[in-house]
Amino acid sequence: MSVWGLFVSSFIASTIFPGGSEAVLAYLVAEGDSPVVELVAVASVGNTLGALTTWFLGFLTAKKYPVQQLLPGKKQKAIASVQRWGRWALLFSWLPIVGDGLCFAAGWLRLPLWTSSLAILIGKTARYAAIAVMFV
Questions:
Q1: CA trace torsion 97, 93, 84, 56 (10° rounding)
Q2: pTM check: above 0.90
Q3: Which residue, among 14, 20, 36, 16, has the nearest Cα to 123 in the 3D structure?
Q4: What is the DSSP letter of 95?
């Protein structure tokens, strides 16, 4: 398994397809052929790009099915709160099942791309760093 294999595995694991990027990272860290910081960075970037793919799918869905058309007026206030604070929920985008939904919802709600990307990257990097530390 190579660093590129880790990148591909991490990307796929963060889209709608299940993957085992954590196992690939653990294997490569334990193998010791590549610097741990490099492995964590590659896994984090790949996983973040996969999450942003899901974000963009949500963004494209919003063009055909805008939130405002699907929800009654009273719920618009709740949507405004999610739009204001929701991007920080993306710190938990690494969670199985829930994480993909968070990324899709963030795109659908048109949360800001840059801060969404930052929150996703921080959460995923923290998760991969924790995994790497366990296998050093």
A1: -80
A2: no
A3: 14
A4: S
Phi, psi of 52 (to 5 degrees): -70, -30
Q: Where are the beta strands (DSSP E) in 1-136?
A: none
3-state secondary structure of 94: coil
| Residues 136/29, Cβ–Cβ less than 8 Å | yes
Give residue 82's domain range.
Answer: 3-135
Contact between 2 and 31 under an 8 Å Cβ cutoff? The reply is no
Instruction: Look up residue 69 and give its two tokens.
Output: 């058309």
Burial zone of 57 (CB within 10 Å; 0-12 exposed, 13-18 middle, 19+ buried): middle
- The predicted-structure confidence for 22-53, as pLDDT tens digits, reads as follows 999 999 999 999 999 999 999 999 999 999 99
The total number of structural domains in the chain stands at 1
Average pLDDT over residues 14-18: 76
